[in-house]
Amino acid sequence: MISLTQNEILKILLKKKMLLIFMLLLIFVSLLSYGQKYSYDNNIKKFEAESGGVAYDWKGLTTQRLNDLEERSSNEFIPEEVRASIDREIQQLNYFIENDINPITPTASKFNVQFVEQGITLFIPLLIVILAADLVSNEFSKKTIKILLTRAVPRWKILFSKFLALLIMTTILVFIIAVSSTLVSYLFFQQWGFSEPIVTGFRLVGDQLNSDSTILISRFQYTLLIYSLLWFVSIVMASITLMISVLVDNSSSAIGILMAALIGGQFLQFFLSEWTLVKYFFVTNLDLTRYLTGSYQPIEGMSLNFSILILSAWAVVALIISFMVFNRKDVIV
Hints:
The chain is mainly alpha-helical. The protein folds into 2 domains: 269 residues, no CATH class; 48 residues. 68% of the residues lie in helices and 4% in strands. It has 13 helices and 4 strands. α9 packs antiparallel against α10 and α10 crosses α11. The longest helix has 35 residues. It starts with a helix and ends in a 5-residue tail after the last helix. Pfam families: ABC2_membrane_2 (PF12679). One of its GO terms (molecular function) is ABC-type transporter activity. Keywords: Membrane, Transmembrane, Transmembrane helix.
């Protein structure tokens, strides 16, 4: 099994797909980092121009916000959960002022989290598709599957070795995303920002934002949490991609089907959000990061636990189908 897995990893590396993925990442990360830096500098210039040439003073603006929050917190009529949320934000702003940290300045830690939050539903899944779409279908289209099946190895072991190799390469890909987005953005922003505090744990209850379960953690801890969710989503996408690769005999068809599912799922989520079945589609549940910020949930009844359960079910069913079809699939001589 180990030798089979090593052989599958070597196959992936020899196709130079990881190099292509790395180049795409560098291009997108560089463009987005430059764009964010350019936008930040322009906003500062615009603020100074509109204020009559007065130099931008983030401490003054932050102190003003802090005073407003302290005044609100002292109001005895506000609910306790709201007061708790305000007190956490006060802690956060005090930390920024005491440690001379501009809370709106772009940093590497902010960027790599934002990159995941924006890319987790389409761009990063497409990278997984590039990585895995031809894992099995290419063997059938090039007839190399006959060589594999002539070995005295059960079919399930062959497919399982491919799946293990895919898990390893997917984990490496997530690590590459984290490292490249951090290092490249640091070249533009010149600040790491991993020690900054951040408030997370908001959740929607009906139409109200509930903050009674929020916590104050460092950006480093928040980054680990975000990338843990990304790794889980990536493994689910890898499992579904493996299934499609088994079902079709052509790599381009596999890529086309998965791209159509990812893009079509976005349209379904946007236009048919009131249709109950939409929330059971895997694409609708990919954006797990929105639950950490209390972002608007497009479909009623969805939660972090719900989305993790649905994605897990999709991954398990995809693997079951993959092994069943692969074990019975005819090989044309």
